[in-house]
Amino acid sequence: MVPTIEWKDGIVRMLDQTKLPLEVTFFDCSTYQEVATGIKELIIRGAPAIGVAAAMGVALGAQKVETDDFAEFYSQVEKICAHIGSTRPTAVNLFWAIERMKQFILSNKEKPVAVIKKALIDESNKVLKEDIEANKAMGRHGSQFIKNGNTILTHCNAGALATGGYGTALGVIRAAKEEGKDINVFADETRPVLQGARLTAWELMEDDIPVTLITDNMAGWFMKKGMIDLCIVGADRIARNGDTANKIGTYSVAVLAHRHGIPFYVAAPVSTIDFNIPSGDSIPIEERNPMEVTHVFGKTQIAPKGVKVANPAFDVTPAELITAIITEKGAFKPGEISRLAVVSSKQKQEVRSQKSEENLPPLEKGD
Ligand code: MRU
To answer: Residue 356 — very low, low, confident or very high, per pLDDT cuts 50/70/90?
Structure first.
């Protein structure tokens, strides 16, 4: 697969996902403002990929801050962070990555600004590398839920394109395939932006994983006919109680799965869990341009001019409808993920003190 995002010769290169699957082209960012545009305009999208882009955007912006004074440098970087942080409100990885970059700077404040600037590039590449490693670990923990011969329904795109690489939901599916299991995927097209039709179908076909594309309103029918064995989706933000925000339409899939007794899994890294919020009620939901609903790709009009439109980009699936949340630390019942907060806060300390993971408390499997 072509890399979703990379730091290349002083620029941040994004695979332009608005052009897929018809064209494989790149959006090269030489300023942090361009990185912010890339995130806002969905050139790069998917919670973990947005996090990587944010980290690289901060590093890119920091290179152009011209001062040797730490206080001045940090204040300029805070402005860069605020600009990147204003792009999309729901995916918590955006804010997680910005916070990580800020903490990195503060923990190196005694070093010369020039040294910190260079180290920020390495740190953003580390965010990318760790994301890919987390996805592979998620794959190892999650593939146990996929049996030989299973058909898996997924919604939106939670694949290599939505992450640093390999994918969360599609990472679990990739891992099952790599273990030699004979599997099939049903991909919801995912109206209105069609991440399922344009991206998931493309990505799975590139990897020779059998995929059947369906429109969103077909999912219930295929479940009723006994053709879906399990559902796996990604997440944009998971609250402390396991309530999960993901692409609009995920909640409907979860309700349908519950009605038909089909397991419903969420695959996401720990960086997608927002331990600061008690439930999904506190998750901000992005409202996007009505043109995404009234037009196809901003070109062909499919609804009467002037019609009232609602276009929330995400919905929240209550924890009670989720069978397990698959993370890089193992699979957990939704009600158990608050235990991961210990790991998360410890990891934050590690960023500061560079301690190893051996000291972390052991975690049991949630299922
Ligand atoms: O609006 P998008 O395309 O950024 O929404 C993406 C999703 O909802 C994904 O399912 C989610 O971010 C998980 S990606 C591993």
So the answer is: very low
The CATH superfamily holding the domain 141-357 is: Translation initiation factor eif-2b; domain 2 (3.40.50.10470)
User: Which residues are annotated as catalytic?
Assistant: 236
Domain with CATH 3.40.50.10470 in the chain: 141-357
- The response to whether residue 162 sits with its C-beta less than 6 Å from ligand 1 reads yes
- 47 alpha carbon to ligand 1 midpoint, in Å? 5
CA–centroid distance, 113 to ligand 1, in Å, is 35
pLDDT in tens, 176-204: 999 999 999 999 999 999 999 999 999 99
200 lines ligand 1 (CB under 6 A): no
What does pLDDT average to over the chain? 94
Average pLDDT over residues 45-60: 98
Q: Is the CB of residue 313 below 6 angstroms from any atom belonging to ligand 1?
A: yes
Residue 58 Cβ inside 6 Å of ligand 1? The answer reads: no
CATH number of 5-135: 1.20.120.420
Nearest CA to ligand 1 atom 5: 46
Residue 302 Cα distances to 18, 22, 214, angstroms: 19, 21, 20
Euclidean distance between CA atoms 55 and 227, whole angstroms: 41
Estimate to the nearest angstrom the gap between the alpha carbon of 243 and the chain centroid.
Answer: 16
- Residue pLDDT, tens place only, 10-39: 999 999 999 999 999 999 999 999 999 999
How many beta carbons lie within 10 A of that of residue 301, not counting itself? 11
Residues 207-216 pLDDT 10s: 999 999 999 9
Tell how far the Cα of 337 is from the centroid of ligand 1, in angstroms: 20
103, 345 in Cβ contact below 8 A?
no
Phi, psi (deg, nearest 5) at residue 104: -60, -45
Q: Where in the chain is the domain with CATH 1.20.120.420?
A: 5-135
Quick check: CB of 156 below 6 Å from ligand 1? yes
* Single pTM value for the model: 0.93
Q: Does the CB atom of residue 317 touch ligand 1 within 6 A?
A: no
Q: Which atom of ligand 1 is nearest to the CA of 91?
A: 12
Using most ligand atoms within 8 A of CB, pick from 247, 270, 285 the residue to mutate for ligand 1: 247
